[in-house]
Amino acid sequence: VFVGGGDETVYALDAATGRKVWATKAGGKVLGSPAVVENRVYIGVTGGRILCLDAAKGRIVWEFATGGDDGASPAVSDGRVFVENAPDAILCLDAATGKKIWECPMAGKVHGSPLSVLGKRLYGAKGDEAAVFCLEAETGKEVWRCEAGRACASPAISGERLFVDADLEEDGIITGGALAHMDARTGARVW
Taking the model in full, what pTM does it have? Predict the structure, then answer.
């Protein structure tokens, strides 16, 4: 089990006993969830950094300065790390080296973390634009973007269906509590 917290440390715990296996100073608060793939732990740290740790020993394999500040949770798929805590951008990093593959500029803050990945597509929400978006994971090119209320959490995916929180606004008042169902391929709203 891998966890982090406000003490600027990432911990590996034995799942059966809860005993600490290792602890690594992260150099910033760990507010999000780690992504664990093969023998690597990927985690966002406040101060705008993504760390890749060796899962067995806790050694830092690489780190990347995003320029953001919130330490969002990364998503990992097909040898790539996707992170949304860069200032007004989505980044794609090589999972083995931490080198930047592409950057997709986004006007304003992306909300929710981690981004959701399904096959060759990446999904996220922009609360300031009341929009949900889909990018090609390979290139960062936008596939579609549509309004869905003030979405503030990561979209959930089930098959070809996309679900996102969608606080609705009536006469300038956020009514909250809505859920939008969208077609993951096209962004068309189902309900």
Answer: 0.87
